[in-house]
Amino acid sequence: MRFLTAGESHGPQLTAIIEGLPSQLPLLKADIDPMLRKRQGGYGRGRRMVIETDEAQIMSGVRAGRTTGAPVTLVIENKDHRNWTEIMSPEEGGEPRKKALTEARPGHADLTGGIKYRHKDLRDVLERASARETTARVAVGAVALKLLSELGIDGVSYVTHLGGVDALGTFGWDRLDEIEASDLRVLDKDAEQRMRDGIDQAKKDGDTLGGIVEIRFRGLPPGLGSYVHWDRKLDGRIAAAVMGTQAIKGVEIGTGFENARVPGSKVHDAVYVGEGGHGYRRETNGAGGLEAGMTNGEDLIVRAAMKPIATLMKSLPTVDVVSHQPADAAKERSDTSAVPAAGIVLHAVIGWVLADAVMERFGGDSLPELLERVQAARSYAQHY
Ligand SMILES: Cc1cc2nc3c(=O)[nH]c(=O)nc-3n(C[C@H](O)[C@H](O)[C@H](O)COP(=O)(O)O)c2cc1C
Ligand SMILES: C=C(O[C@@H]1CC(C(=O)O)=C[C@@H](OP(=O)(O)O)[C@H]1O)C(=O)O
């Protein structure tokens, strides 16, 4: 499968085209919109999220609630565009240049993007670098998650750290409702309050905060991805999708970094004969569900570090790219922290990688065909 996204942060809309979905997949707008709404949430987001009420329009590839096998086009309107029509107009004229942004923000795409694409109004850079684009990837990911759910695979994201405050890392699938009920997506009420206080303080100080999110999937059949060639390894493909997300600066699978500190006997997950004498089971999951670039049937566990937002109200020193004089970095309207939202984005982009790996391994032009093949592979693994 493949997809492309297009659209600027303050342009009229975001567009995504997905190609390669099987036919007969039940798909409604209602399968996509709740995830878009979740991505907008989280304590610490800026005023833009009050303006937008993201919803997807399905413009092709679906009839009567089922995919046809043709490319699926998704459109999400930018409600804020009405305030930016002159500035974002594709027509020539003086108006679009009036609000030129020239004080490059350290940590954002501004300076290098300006040099690379020869822009002196850095708005031409930030409009596409902006994480507004993640709306389109979440819409695409929601479709991928729908496909996975038909195969009995689902996932969740939650926050384990925000701006110096740790939340409980332990997780049980029975606590899903608790995660969804928290606007910081944490399981620990005490930590949640301290995170909230930290965000309030950062906002007062004109500063920003980052954090760590964990994403888990369950129900994955063994053997997605492959060890036979580097670019087919699923851990690499997941890491690329995670690192390809705005502001993500670190990724870990299972107990990744901790593994470097302890002996192998404390790292690797011993294998035992499965329940009733069939199949296999493990009692630990340090591998995070991946061995040699393949799913091993255990839960997939991915952790990602988000840096603090680059736009600071207490500006960092920079240089004006037109006057070439020292300046304070531009103050754009911005989030103070967007860690829970990043978790939703990562849930979506990992969902895409998994759905893509499912289609690659099992193929099938229609969902019933795909289901038969997945079922056969699960049964084979059970009796291997
Ligand atoms: C959900 C989400 C919201 C974000 N909101 C902002 C924001 O309001 N202001 C900002 O400067 N950066 C924000 N970012 C991060 C920037 O888009 C990102 O730092 C920038 O594009 C530079 O890319 P890099 O951090 O990956 O190097 C956000 C990122 C995510 C994932
Ligand atoms: C629009 C979104 O996030 C934006 C991401 C972003 C950035 O620089 O990445 C900057 C801000 O844009 P604006 O100046 O329009 O408020 C965020 O609001 C969104 O998440 O939908």
UniProtKB/TrEMBL annotation:
<dbReference type="GO" id="GO:0009073">
    <property type="term" value="P:aromatic amino acid family biosynthetic process"/>
</dbReference>
<dbReference type="InterPro" id="IPR000453">
    <property type="entry name" value="Chorismate_synth"/>
</dbReference>
<dbReference type="GO" id="GO:0010181">
    <property type="term" value="F:FMN binding"/>
</dbReference>
<comment type="pathway">
    <text>Metabolic intermediate biosynthesis; chorismate biosynthesis; chorismate from D-erythrose 4-phosphate and phosphoenolpyruvate: step 7/7.</text>
</comment>
<keyword id="KW-0288">FMN</keyword>
<keyword id="KW-0057">Aromatic amino acid biosynthesis</keyword>
<feature type="binding site">
    <location>
        <position position="333"/>
    </location>
    <ligand>
        <name>FMN</name>
    </ligand>
</feature>
<feature type="binding site">
    <location>
        <position position="39"/>
    </location>
    <ligand>
        <name>NADP(+)</name>
    </ligand>
</feature>
<keyword id="KW-0521">NADP</keyword>
<comment type="function">
    <text>This reaction introduces a second double bond into the aromatic ring system.</text>
</comment>
<keyword id="KW-0028">Amino-acid biosynthesis</keyword>
<feature type="region of interest" description="Disordered">
    <location>
        <begin position="88"/>
        <end position="113"/>
    </location>
</feature>
<feature type="binding site">
    <location>
        <begin position="307"/>
        <end position="311"/>
    </location>
    <ligand>
        <name>FMN</name>
    </ligand>
</feature>
<dbReference type="InterPro" id="IPR035904">
    <property type="entry name" value="Chorismate_synth_AroC_sf"/>
</dbReference>
<comment type="similarity">
    <text>Belongs to the chorismate synthase family.</text>
</comment>
<keyword id="KW-0285">Flavoprotein</keyword>
<dbReference type="GO" id="GO:0008652">
    <property type="term" value="P:amino acid biosynthetic process"/>
</dbReference>
<dbReference type="GO" id="GO:0005829">
    <property type="term" value="C:cytosol"/>
</dbReference>
<protein>
    <recommendedName>
        <fullName>Chorismate synthase</fullName>
        <ecNumber>4.2.3.5</ecNumber>
    </recommendedName>
</protein>
<dbReference type="GO" id="GO:0004107">
    <property type="term" value="F:chorismate synthase activity"/>
</dbReference>
<feature type="binding site">
    <location>
        <position position="45"/>
    </location>
    <ligand>
        <name>NADP(+)</name>
    </ligand>
</feature>
<dbReference type="Pfam" id="PF01264">
    <property type="entry name" value="Chorismate_synt"/>
</dbReference>
<dbReference type="InterPro" id="IPR020541">
    <property type="entry name" value="Chorismate_synthase_CS"/>
</dbReference>
<keyword id="KW-0456">Lyase</keyword>
<feature type="binding site">
    <location>
        <begin position="246"/>
        <end position="247"/>
    </location>
    <ligand>
        <name>FMN</name>
    </ligand>
</feature>
<keyword id="KW-0274">FAD</keyword>
<feature type="compositionally biased region" description="Basic and acidic residues">
    <location>
        <begin position="94"/>
        <end position="108"/>
    </location>
</feature>
<feature type="binding site">
    <location>
        <position position="292"/>
    </location>
    <ligand>
        <name>FMN</name>
    </ligand>
</feature>
<comment type="subunit">
    <text>Homotetramer.</text>
</comment>
<feature type="binding site">
    <location>
        <begin position="128"/>
        <end position="130"/>
    </location>
    <ligand>
        <name>FMN</name>
    </ligand>
</feature>
<dbReference type="GO" id="GO:0009423">
    <property type="term" value="P:chorismate biosynthetic process"/>
</dbReference>
